[in-house]
Amino acid sequence: MKIKNIYMAVFVAVLMASCGTQRSVVKPSGTSSSSSASSSASAQQQKMQFVQRVSDGALYQKNIVSDLTFTVNTGRKEITVPGILHMRKDEVIRLQLLVPIIRSEVGRIEFTRDYVLFIDRMHKQYVKAKYTDVAFLKSNGINFYSLQALFWNQLFIPGQQRVSERSLAQFDVDLTSLHTTNKQGVPLTLNDGKMNYKWLAESLTGLFVWLKPNTAVLHTACLC
């Protein structure tokens, strides 16, 4: 059955609009060229070390269960309800929406490797579709593994199941934030040619920063 105008608050990467990177062009000459090359190499090394730190912070638990607060935008108003997050690595991510106090299930969002399932028990409606059939997920290159990566503190590259050691060089790091006390976290970015993907990680631990469960790293999906 088709569900009209349902918006789901989903933990996914902040997807930034594509923007150009400004670079100053300087003609190489003698000592300045050597100094510039050395500085560039040092900066690149620092970036790689931090990306590696983030990569090493990935979680390896097979199963994760956690309580959460979930906000659903129906188009007319926002409804905040408690919920439960169940995850089994490489198999399923299940978000259950509960009735406050009595905690019976009123809705469910389930992601598997092959499909996305949305259930609205109050209106007895549901949608089951492939990732390529949901416009929001398809246009942003989101699949099961990219969603899973966020919960397991892993970086991801759209279209790939895993990020190899060699692929870490594709990620960029804001060195200014890395060298300053930044409570918001250090930005890491990936440009796949169509979109810019952005993560925030703690400078010391390399763990992703989630300021608030529903607002720190958030996007809304729409089935119309």
Top keywords for this entry?
224 residues; alpha+beta; 8-stranded antiparallel beta sheet; 4 helices; disordered N terminus; disordered C terminus; DUF4292 domain-containing protein; DUF4292; signal
Describe the structure.
With 224 residues, the protein is of the alpha+beta class. The protein is 20% helix and 34% strand. It contains four helices and twelve strands; from the N terminus they run ββαββββββααβαβββ. The strands form two sheets. Strands 8-7-6-5-4-3-1-12 form an eight-stranded antiparallel sheet. A four-stranded antiparallel sheet has the order 2-11-10-9. Strand 5 and strand 6 (105-112) form a beta hairpin. Mean pLDDT is 75; it is low at 1-29 and 211-224.
Beta-strand percentage range: 25-35%
Fraction of residues in helix? 10-25%
Biggest pleated-sheet summary = 8 strands, antiparallel
- Report the mean per-residue pLDDT as an integer: 75
Pfam families: DUF4292
Signal peptide: 1-23
Protein name: DUF4292 domain-containing protein
Keywords: Signal
Which helices and strands appear, and what pairs or packs with what?
Layout (H helix, E strand, L loop, with lengths): L5 E6 L2 E3 L13 H27 L6 E11 L4 E11 L3 E7 L6 E8 L3 E5 L4 E5 L5 H5 L4 H8 L20 E2 L1 H4 L7 E6 L4 E6 L16 E6 L1
Antiparallel strand pairs: 1-3, 1-12, 2-11, 3-4, 4-5, 5-6, 6-7, 7-8, 9-10, 10-11
